[in-house]
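We treat protein structure as text, and this decision shapes the records that our systems exchange. Such a record has a labelled line for the sequence and another for the backbone structure tokens. The record that follows is passed on verbatim for readers who wish to inspect the format:
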Amino acid sequence: MELKIHKEGKIYFFISLLLSIVIFSFFQIIGIFFFIISIYIFYFFRDPSRSIPIEDFIISPADGIVTYIGNSTAPKELEISEEFIKVSIFLSIFNVHVNRIPTSGIIKKIKYISGKFINASLDKSSNDNERNIILIEKENKDLIIITQIAGLIARRIVCNINENQNVIKGNRFGIIKFGSRVDIYMPSIYKPLISVGQTVIGGETIIANPNNIDHLRTSIKN
């Protein structure tokens, strides 16, 4: 597997590595300590390649454990009245923290909200914590929402996409530093293919198959 570090982690890694080399000459134990920190920083900001499914699936936007699946309204800041299926993914400090686009489409809105830093494994963090909300419109006009949520330790959310930008499923779009949570909202007609407690892989794990509900969509329109 290719060893690669996300650009957001390079400054931390090189500073820590430089400190370990300099300090080791005078205080070996402290130097070793900084070297171990350097290894962990590289591990945390690792950015592995992923095998992105070709089909029109909704894929996981993050690595982690699914902590919640259920009916939900959209984040109130978007002022959308539709009903959604919400899937919450908790990222521990040991997970890959690079976020990926769950479906191809166009970015209709990005809204950053300042907030608290409570434990991201708690469901109330979706509304209380510092977060970044991204609204994607698919080609068929279905709306997919992603929310990057800062956690107890996380203090910075990075988002590298812009409104009105066309995005491709599986592409990297940001990172949340040091423990976090990602919520994804899908149309209520979608059927989740994952379960609570399941470990998912960003860019690879299929969380819904919109093609399975085309007949239901036709029935509703009729």
Observations:
- The first helix runs from residue 7 to 24.
